[in-house]
UniProtKB/TrEMBL annotation:
First-tier enzyme category under EC: hydrolase
InterPro entries, A to Z: Peptide_deformylase, Peptide_deformylase_sf
E.C. number(s) listed in UniProt: 3.5.1.88
Species annotation: Senna tora
PANTHER family documented for this protein: PEPTIDE DEFORMYLASE (PTHR10458)
Protein name according to UniProt: Peptide deformylase
Keywords of the record: Chloroplast, Hydrolase, Iron, Metal-binding, Plastid, Protein biosynthesis, Transit peptide
Location, primary (coarse class): plastid
Amino acid sequence: MISLAADLQFEAPLKIVEYPDQRLRAKNKRIDTFDDNLRKLVHEMFDVMYKTDGIGLSAPQVGINVQLMVFNPVGERGEGEEIVLVNPRIGKYSKKQILFNEGCLSFPRIYGDVQRPESVKIDACDVNGTKFSVSLSELPARIFQHEFDHLQGILFFERMTEEVLDSIRAQLQDLERKYEVETGFPSPEKIEKQRGKKVAVGFGKS
């Protein structure tokens, strides 16, 4: 599925989409138009990421369902390296797995241990449409994998063990109730339905 120009239209300032908003589960389109709208979107995504003390952000997290992510492992404007990945794909990832405590801007104040490959090689385009490959390890690799999951409609709690998931289940249910109060509609998903579900594996396909 290829994005249209309208898919990159947005109103600033961008706002973080919180679980269980269905846009976090929607199909994310490939980008084939590399223009000023895309560059403006990237700029605004970095802006909201820094303002919310994040280190990574995917387009669906601001309600725009395209294959785009931005991140900066330092998390401070003007410091570290700002990375923009358009239409990313995973070439290979390490067999070595690392357990690390993750948070997510779409799950405010919720944290849990997630195991992921220590390193990953990816193919992507930059904001101008130039294709490139890059190998990432440690924190940059983890940020990428977390954001790449978002582009596949996978949320980080799906990669947690049942024991870890149980430790945050009440907080997830609080977000579901918050959604129902604010929208007047039933939550599109309920965390209790996840019990017994297999932990997500692999990186998904789009």
